[in-house]
Each structure stands twice: as structure tokens, then as C-alpha cells.
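Quick start: what a row looks like.
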Amino acid sequence: MVTINKINVRCFSPKDLNRIMEIERASFSIDSFSEDIFMSWYHKCPYLFIVAEISGVVVGYMITCIAHKKGYVASIAVDPAYRHKSVGKTLVYFTFNHLKMSGVKIIELEVRSTNIESIRFWENLGFFTLRTISNFYNDGTDALKMRKFIGG
């Protein structure tokens, strides 16, 4: 476990699943992951499925995987009551450090093209838009494929 600004970051454990589901439903109504999807990500990328805790309460999570020497952010969410309190940035910086130590130089993700707050979040962290992916989400909304270069 790592503590940054009173935010503890640690690997996800299956005992966190109920709380993760609460955060997921509060954050993504249409495209929320199921418990099975979370457990699949956990088995696929256990060391980069991390949670943020404040005073022992899980307040956010981030799932990232490494494939073909690239980092891929599968999902990130913060409990609405804890947004704008550096929880998301803490999760991201923890992940970036892990990816750099693993030799990863590129990180990619998709974000809903209508989610201006998330787009700004990623842009402020140095991500740029590569392209638009049409009809990416279940409701037909496009996604922006974003990328960031890290490391040397």
C-alpha cells in the first residue's frame, strides 16, 4: 500500500467488489461494467487493478493492463462525493510510475466523446486525441482514442 496525501493506493481485492460496483453505477449508468467483467479484469491485470482509500473507505479505482509494450487504461472511476480531491490523479500517477518501471512508453484509452469532464481530465494529464471511433459505446456514441507518451 502507498499513501499519497492521505489517499491510500493498493491492489484491488475481491472483497472490494461491492464497493467498486457502487462507484461504477454512480459513475457510468449506461456503460457500467458487471461484476463478471471486473473479475475478468482482476484475473487479467491484478497488479494494475488498483483502488484508492481514504480513512479505510474505497473511494475510487483504476484498471490498466500492459499489452504489446503499451499501457491500456480500461476504466477509472471516483465516488462522486470524492471527485476533485486528487483521487483520480493519485490513481493515475501511481499507475504511470508502475508502467514506467515496467518499460512502458505509451498509454492509451478510450473516452466517451460527449464526456467533456473526462476528456479535460486526460488532456490535463498530457493525453492527446489520436482519432474518433464511431459507434464505440452501446448507445451508439463515439469514443475518442487518446494517447500519452511516458518515460524516456
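That is the whole record. The chain has one domain: 2-149. The chain has a mean pLDDT of 92.
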